Recover the amino acids of this structure.
């Protein structure tokens, strides 16, 4: 455990074996300086800090199981006739990729389990990243100095989506092939270069003989390689910046309060890896995922109903489903707006959330480091923006599954499509307004609690017959926690005329910034937090308590 | 077990004398009162509770070992194709279930043991570390800037403009080699997307029976899929050809066909449309015989086959291309040419 060497053991020259190994390594790698800074590093505790860990561990599980799968998978599109152990597909023509996936599922002992863990872990990985990102967003953990780590995380999310997409396309089954066809159609819609990109990607016309092999190297080498680098960089920055923490007694912007890495956090985090892995293994034992044998091999002239991508691609599916089929023909060319516009909006939806930290820091003009997390209610505009974005995302998910909504809830598919078309524009605005109101309401409640105490539920009858509810004053810890947040004042443009009466030209960006700042921190955008004077006045005067 | 049995000296009162709660600050009631005093867990003050925790952790680790043994035993003994009935999952593969559950328990028990150990037996005293600004101090900054200026000066990059410009040129050009190398990823599109296997005189072959068809084989209200004569499943390139040539045949009473050209290109009410959706290329396969609507199951584009397959709902941008058909001398349905417009999704050169 401990690697500190006592002078005594040194002088006798009989240090324990572990220490001697550590000394040897330190002489070459300088591990003691590293350990000095990190071995007892403090990590704050909060349930939401575990979300990122889920992502990290599922990523590791994906790599472990993925390496195993490569030992059996043949990334080839050669057509072969099936004579394996799965009887219903006997004699069918299929690609070697599909056949080897069947073999992994039916002939390799434990192969199906590893395949399912791999797929489940991928779904959990993306879901974990989504929720982790929301945690970081709503608590303001992206603020200086963590903006770059936010971008690293965002890139991991986007790359994770494409790694997932290339991964589930590899078995070359009817469902994933339909997804590839969709992708090809989307690429074809790109003006000028679309057909060329498509021909280069597929080695000719769709589907050709190449895409499985090409997707394979993208899926197992290119994207995971980049992601591994990003994950390492992400973790290094988490260590370097030290973790954020929520406000509370004893917690300041200049300290970090929690448990040391060795032993508590190491045991908890290490144990959590096994918990995640264990749950994924058990889920894979009882819940089938992507049963390609029931879907059948890919044929470009066949399809099944209810074709859906994995969940993280669902919002792009929604975009393409609800878009009106606009096409403009001119001078012998076609501008396929009905497909191209969704293709352009797809990255914009993601970029909207990615650039937000930079917009907020521009509006606040705050150049300080922030290590204390915001409660979402105390940043109403940010929270409202985040909820609006999630609403946008989920409206598109509904659009992506419009057929399933229609069949499961007996609704008209046309009505759902029209609902999504309208909600795409309206729902985020409504969500923004409602969320902001809720946040302000919660701020008022906090203020009330600070000034008047907690509702105790005890009813008291006064001598003259009046009934009142007894309010219990909060402890100083609670008072501090509820009033610890900072409140910005809106940015002022300042006088437009200087002392000599010369008009100063105000740049449009500055006007915009002042306007946004007013929206963020103006009178209607936050409830002034209680002051000490208010508190004293109320507590010293008449007392209900 | 009960708290009366706990030795006096282990109780929190005697153990912890420093961490009494601070009284409220008179001046600023909102001031930070500092870290709250450490609260002891039962394991900190009662050695028997700690022992219990120890046994729980050990039990979990032992359970993990047993589960791993179970995993290996399942791997060796259960045949890969054995199926069992497990309520409420139904009939499932025995090996997958056994391996997954034993592996799950083996891993979960390790995790649960480690977390329980950390939560009950390791110190839960919260510690505080100081943070230091990420930014360098002004002195360090000044030193770095000086070093950089010195280095830049010594490189003479700023003074010898010729070197600088040619270097930028060389660095900007060499990646082009990499781009050029990508050229052979695929052939140029040319007019490949405009043509399919269909040509004048090619028989329409039923996809299911692999036989050519007579008009009488296609009854009103049915939906039949066809491929061009000579294209066989075992052919190399079958997938690529069928991706364009796939055809669907419907028969509608000629009086019900609204589109004039469509009627002309049909044969006795038999209409041959491309099966490939003009949106993003899914095969259209849902046909509603009462309304003559065909629906693409991928993105719900709906086409009215009685009206030239025009789009009546959904994201598709234009009608399905129609193939001109007739019958040959022997009475079999045949194509009278290729599609006169590209099939499948629209693209820039389509026009």
């Amino acid at each position: 455990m401990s690697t500190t060497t006592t002078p005594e053991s040194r002088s006798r020259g009989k240090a324990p074996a572990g220490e001697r190994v550590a000394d040897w390594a330190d002489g070459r790698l300088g591990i003691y300086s590293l350990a000095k800074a990190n071995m007892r590093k403090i990590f704050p505790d909060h349930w939401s800090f575990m979300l990122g860990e889920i992502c990290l561990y599922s990523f590791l599980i994906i790599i472990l199981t993925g390496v195993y799968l490569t030992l059996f998978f043949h990334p080839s599109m050669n057509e072969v006739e099936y004579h394996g152990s799965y009887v219903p597909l006997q004699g069918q023509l299929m690609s070697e990729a599909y056949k080897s996936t069947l073999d992994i599922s039916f002939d390799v002992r434990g192969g199906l389990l590893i395949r399912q863990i791999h797929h489940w872990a991928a779904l959990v990985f993306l879901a974990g990243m989504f929720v982790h990102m929301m945690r970081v967003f709503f608590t303001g953990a992206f603020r200086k100095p963590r903006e770059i780590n936010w971008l690293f995380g965002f890139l991991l999310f986007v790359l994770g989506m494409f790694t997932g997409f290339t991964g589930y396309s590899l078995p070359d089954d009817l469902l994933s092939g339909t997804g590839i066809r969709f992708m090809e159609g989307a690429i074809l819609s790109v003006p000028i270069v679309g057909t060329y990109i498509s021909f280069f990607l597929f080695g000719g016309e769709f589907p050709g003989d190449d895409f499985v092999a090409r997707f394979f190297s993208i899926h197992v080498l290119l994207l995971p390689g980049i992601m591994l680098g990003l994950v390492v960089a992400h973790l290094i920055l988490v260590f370097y910046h030290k973790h954020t923490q929520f406000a509370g007694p004893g917690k300041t912007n200049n300290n970090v309060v929690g448990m040391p890495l060795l032993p508590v956090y190491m045991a908890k985090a290490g144990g959590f890896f096994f918990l995640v892995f264990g749950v994924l293994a058990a889920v894979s034992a009882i819940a089938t995922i992507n049963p390609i044998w029931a879907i059948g091999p890919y044929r470009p002239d066949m399809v099944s109903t209810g074709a859906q991508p994995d969940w993280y691609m669902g919002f792009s599916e929604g975009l393409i489903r609800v878009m009106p089929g606009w096409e403009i023909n001119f001078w012998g060319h076609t501008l396929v707006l009905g497909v191209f516009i969704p293709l352009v909006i797809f990255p914009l939806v993601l970029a909207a959330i990615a650039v937000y930290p930079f917009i907020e820091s521009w509006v606040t003009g705050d150049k300080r480091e922030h290590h204390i997390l915001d409660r979402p209610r105390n940043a109403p505009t940010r929270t409202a923006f985040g909820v609006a974005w999630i609403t946008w995302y989920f409206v598109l998910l509904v659009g992506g599954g419009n057929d399933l909504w229609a069949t499961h809830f007996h609704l008209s598919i046309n009505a759902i499509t029209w609902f999504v078309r309208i909600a795409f524009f309206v729902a985020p605005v409504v969500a923004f307004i409602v969320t902001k109101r809720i946040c302000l309401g919660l701020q008022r409640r906090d203020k009330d609690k600070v000034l008047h105490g907690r509702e105790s539920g005890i009813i008291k009858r006064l001598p003259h017959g009046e009934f009142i509810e007894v309010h219990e004053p909060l402890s100083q810890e609670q008072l501090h926690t509820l009033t610890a947040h900072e409140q910005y004042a809106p940015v002022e443009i300042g006088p437009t005329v200087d002392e000599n009466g010369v008009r100063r030209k105000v740049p449009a960006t500055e006007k915009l910034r002042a306007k946004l700042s007013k929206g963020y921190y103006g009178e209607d955008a936050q409830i002034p937090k209680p002051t000490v004077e208010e508190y004293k006045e109320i507590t010293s005067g008449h007392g209900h308590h | 077990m009960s708290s009366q049995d706990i030795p006096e000296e282990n109780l929190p009162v005697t153990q912890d004398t420093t961490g009494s709660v601070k009284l409220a600050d008179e001046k600023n009631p909102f001031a930070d009162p500092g870290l709250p005093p450490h609260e002891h867990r039962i394991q900190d003050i009662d050695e028997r509770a700690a022992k219990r925790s120890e046994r729980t952790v050990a039990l979990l680790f032992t359970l993990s070992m047993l589960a791993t043994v179970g995993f290996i035993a399942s791997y060796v003994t259960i045949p890969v194709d054995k199926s069992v009935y497990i309520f409420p999952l139904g009939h499932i593969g025995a090996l997958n279930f056994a391996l997954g559950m034993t592996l799950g328990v083996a891993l979960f028990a390790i995790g649960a043991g480690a977390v329980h150990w950390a939560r009950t037996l390791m110190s839960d005293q919260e510690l505080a570390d100081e943070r230091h600004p990420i930014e360098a101090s002004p002195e360090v900054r000044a030193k770095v800037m000086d070093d950089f200026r010195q280095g830049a000066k010594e490189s003479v990059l700023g003074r010898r403009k010729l070197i600088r410009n040619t270097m930028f040129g060389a660095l900007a050009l060499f990646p082009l080699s990499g781009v050029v190398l990508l050229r052979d990823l695929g052939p140029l599109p040319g007019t490949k997307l405009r043509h399919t296997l269909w040509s004048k005189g090619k028989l329409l072959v039923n996809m299911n029976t692999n036989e050519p068809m007579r008009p009488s084989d296609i009854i009103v209200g049915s939906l039949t899929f066809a491929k061009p004569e000579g294209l066989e499943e075992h052919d190399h390139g079958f997938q690529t050809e069928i991706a364009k040539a796939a055809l669907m045949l419907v028969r509608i009473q000629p009086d019900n066909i609204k589109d004039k050209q469509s009627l002309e290109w049909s044969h006795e009410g038999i209409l041959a449309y491309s099966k490939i959706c003009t949106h993003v290329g899914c095969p259209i396969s849902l046909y509603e015989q009462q309304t003559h609507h065909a629906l693409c199951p991928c993105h719900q584009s709906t086409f009215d086959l009685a009206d030239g397959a025009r789009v009546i709902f959904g994201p598709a941008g234009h009608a399905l291309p129609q193939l001109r058909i007739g019958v040959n001398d022997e009475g079999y349905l045949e194509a009278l040419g290729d599609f006169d417009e590209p099939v499948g999704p629209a693209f820039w050169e389509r026009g």
